[in-house]
Amino acid sequence: MRKSLRLLAAAGACWLAPVAASAQYYTVPFINAGYNPGNFNADDEAQGVPGWATLLNGTPATRTAPVWSAMQSLPIPFSFDGQPVRRFRVSTSGVLTFDSLATVVPPTANTALPSADVPDRSVCVWGLTTGPNDNILTKTFGTAPNRQFWVQYNSVSQTGTSALQTYWSIVLQESSNTIFIVDQRTVGAPPGLTLTAGVQVSGTQALQVAGSPNLNTRNSQTGTTNNTASDNTFYMFEPGTQPAADMTIRSVSTPQMMGARAPLTLTGAVRNIGSQPVTSYQLGYSVNGGAPVIDNVTGVTIGPLGVNSFSHTVPFVPASAGTYTLKVWANQPNGQLDTKAFNDTTARVIVVADSSLQRTIIMESFTSSTCPPCRPGNVNIRAVQAANPGKAIKIAYQQNFPAPGNDPYYTLEGGARFNYYAGSYVPYMLLDGAWGDNSNSLTTAILNTFHAKPAFINVQPVISRAGTTVNATATITSYIEYPAGMVLQAVIVEKQTRNNARTNGETRFYDVMKKMMPDENGTVLPALRIRQPQTFSLSYTFPAGNNVESFDSLEVVMFVQDPVTKEIHNGSSAELARPSALADEVTFGALSVAPNPTVDDQSSVRLTLPTAQRVSADVLDALGRVVATVPAANLAAGPHELAVRLPATAHGIYVVRVKTGDTVRSRRLVVE
Asked: In the chain, fewer beta carbons within 10 Å around the N or the C end?
C-alpha cells in the first residue's frame, strides 16, 4: 500500500514528517516582505537585465508541450534532503529537479504535492507556461560561502492567461542549504495564477505553500507593475526542524544617503521564526566592523512568525562624509542562544554627504494623444504641479500606441526610455525614476514624499540657441563621492504643442520631449568628487523638416541618474538665455514666458530664484489694465513655473509683470 504524506503543523509552520534524520523541511512565508531573501538580488524584474544567463527560451510549442532543459552544473555547493547535489534541470512548466534520470516532463496542468507527475528531489513553481519571448534565466549573487543561485522564470504566463506576464524565482542558498521561492512581479489582471509552490522529496513526501495548487501571486492583486523587490513575497524552505529560538531582521529603515552629523535612529522590524513566543531579545548594530552597539529589548510579545517594530535607543551619528556599512542584527530571543545565527543579520550601506540640497523632482510621463485615460492623467499632473510650484519638472514622452492614429511626436528615444523603465501601459509616470504608476493616481502627498528627500548633487544648466541648434552646458557639483558610471541626461522639451492632437480629445500638450542629447543613453559621468564642480557640454541641431512648433518654447531638462537603481538624484531645467535678462540675474534669476506666442488663454511664467522670496505676477493689456493676476506666494530657491490664465482675452500684445521683493521685471506676451 502506498504510504501517504503526513504533514505536521505547529506554531504557524509546516514541515515534512522525516523518513531519515536529514530528510526534513519546514517552511516560513514572508508575505509582502518588500525585499528579496538576504537582500542579495537588487536587479530589476524585467526582460533584458544585464548579468543573467539564458538557460532556456520558450517557443510556440513549449507553451502547450513543456520540455526539460539540458542538465546543468550547479555553480555553488548545495544539499537537497540532506544529500549533496551537483546538477539540475528545469522544465518550462515551472519545476526544477535534481533527478538526472527524470524524463517525463511535468505538464502545465498542476496539482497538489506530492504528485506522480513531478520527479523526486524537485522544487516547484508548477503550473507556469513558457512561450515565445519568455525565458528561464540564471544568475549567482554574493561571495562564497554565502552565495545564492537564482533560477528565474522571466515574463512567463499560465494556460488560459496568456496576456498575463509573471516573474517567479527558485533560489538556492549556499551553506545553509535553504530553498526560497520568490513571487517577484506579475503584470496583468485577474483571474491571476493558480500555482503549486513547494518541494517534493519523493512520491510520498512533499511540502507545499498554503494555497497550492491554487496559489496566486501576491503583487498582481493590487494591479501594480512594480519591477523592484519592494512588493515581493517569498517562501523559505529550511532543512531540519523548526527551532524554538530563531530571530531575524525583517526590515531596516535607513536612507541610502544622508547628511553628516545628522543623528540617524535605526528603525525597522524583527520577526520571530522560532516556535516559541518571544518576550525579549537583543538588538544590535555595528558601523564599519566597529564595536557593537547593543539595545536589550524587553516587554514585547512576538508570537511565532510574528513581527515587531523596533527603534534602537542609540542613534548613529556620522562624524564626517564618507561611506558607512551598518550591520544590524537581532538575537538571543528570551535570553536563549539563537540556533540559526546565519539569518540574524542584515547589512546596509549608507553614503554620508558633506552637505544637502532641496530636491527638484523629475517627473517622467509616458502618454499618447490616442490614449483616452491619458487626457485626465495629464490634467491631473498639471493640477498637482500648479498646487506645488517649483517642486517638480515634467518631461512628457509621447508613445506610439494605442492605435489607430499613433501620436506623431513619438520618437525612438521616447520608446527606448519607456522600455528602460519596463513600461507596459500608458498613462504611466515615474518620479525621480521610482513610483511607477498611472498619472491619474498622482497626488500632492505622493509628490511631497519625494520632495522631502534631500539631494546631494547640484545640476546647473545653461542653454542657448543659434538657429535650430540648441547648446546646453551643465555644471555638476556633488556633496558626496560618486563613483564613475552615473549618467547625465539632457532632454530638450517643448513647453506646449498642438500639432500632435489625435483622438483622445486633447488639444494642447505640455513639456513634450523633442530630443535626448546625445541620445537615450545619456552621458556617462566620471567619478564625482565632493565640492569639485565639473562641466559638461552638449549640442544638437534639429534637421530641416523637424516638428518643433516654436523654438522660443524650448527648454532643456538635465538630471543625474543611477543606471543601476534608476534613481534620479537631482535635476534642473533652463530655458533659452536672453541677453536682456542677464543684468539682474543675480538678484532675480532667469525669467521667461512660454509658450510665447500663445494661441489660447494659457501661458506660464518660468523663473529661477537664487534665494527664497515672495513672488507675484500680473498681466497688463495695451492700455495698462490688469487682465490677469498670479497671487503672491512664498517660493523656495530654485526653478518655478507659474500658470497664467487669460480668460476671454483678445488677440494682441500683453505685458507680464513679475515682482519679487523690491525687484520688478517684465516680459512681452503675444496672444495670437
From this structure: N
Which three-class secondary structure state does DSSP give residue 341? helix
Which DSSP state fits 576? B
Grid cell listed for 163: 496576456
How many other β-carbons are positioned within 10 Å of the β-carbon of residue 77? 15
Question: Which residues in 131-157 are b (16+ Cβ under 10 Å) and which e?
Answer: beebbbbbbbbeeeeebbbbbbbbbbb
**Residue 664 burial (10 A CB sphere; 0-12, 13-18, 19+):** exposed
Q: Specify the higher pLDDT residue, 505 or 612.
A: 505
At 197-255, the pLDDT tens digits run 999 999 999 999 999 999 999 875 444 456 788 889 999 999 988 899 999 998 888 88
The backbone region for 422, taken as left when phi is positive above 0, alpha when psi lies in -120 to 50, beta otherwise, is left
Edge-to-edge strand list for the sheet holding 345-353: 257-259, 345-353, 322-331, 281-287, 293-297
Question: What is the Cα–Cα distance from 554 to 412, expressed in whole angstroms?
Answer: 20
Beta strands in 33-176 (DSSP E): 53-57, 72-80, 83-90, 95-97, 122-126, 135-141, 148-156, 165-173
Please state whether 661 falls in left (phi above 0), alpha (psi between -120 and 50) or beta: left
Neighbours of 531 (CB within 10 A): 10
Q: How far apart are CA 232 and CA 119, in angstroms?
A: 28
- 392 Cβ neighbours under 8 A, 6+ residues apart: 360, 361, 362, 363, 385, 431, 447, 451
3-state secondary structure of 432: coil
Question: Taking 50 as the threshold, does the pLDDT of residue 434 lie above it?
Answer: yes
| Cα–Cα distance measured from residue 534 to residue 494, given in angstroms and rounded to the nearest whole number | 27
Instruction: Kindly report the backbone phi and psi dihedral angles of residue 609, in degrees, each rounded to the nearest multiple of 5, phi listed first.
Output: -100, 130
One-letter-per-residue 3-state SS of 361-380: EEEEEEECCCCCCHHHHHHH
d(CA 273, CA 28): 7
pLDDT value, residue 580? 36
- Tell me how far apart the alpha carbons of residues 95 and 106 are, in angstroms, rounded to a whole number: 7
Q: Which has the higher per-residue pLDDT, 34 or 176?
A: 176
Residue 590: CB atoms within 10 Å:
19
State the DSSP H helix or E strand holding residue 397, giving kind and residue range, or none if neither: strand 392-398
Q: What is the pLDDT of residue 11?
A: 33
Q: Whole-angstrom Cα distance, residue 144 to residue 141?
A: 10
Answer left, alpha or beta for residue 390, where phi above 0 means left and psi between -120 and 50 means alpha: left
Say what the pTM is: 0.60
Q: How does pLDDT run across 604-647, given as a tens digit for each residue?
A: 888 888 888 888 888 877 667 788 888 888 888 888 888 887 76
Q: d(Cα 352, Cα 479) in Å, to the nearest integer?
A: 9
3-state secondary structure of 381: helix
* Cell numbers given for 478: 556633488
Distance of CA 67 to the CA centre of its chain: 34
Instruction: Report how far residue 56's alpha carbon sits from residue 171's, in angstroms, rounded to the nearest whole number.
Output: 17
Tell whether the model's pLDDT for residue 385 goes beyond 60.
Answer: yes
Collect all residues with Cβ–Cβ distance below 8 Å to 545 and sequence separation of at least 6: none
The distance from CA 392 to its chain's CA centroid, rounded to whole angstroms, is: 18
* Distances in whole angstroms, Cα of residue 325 to Cα of each of 257, 271, 315, 351, 423: 12, 22, 15, 9, 33
- Give the pLDDT band of residue 191 (cuts 50, 70, 90): low
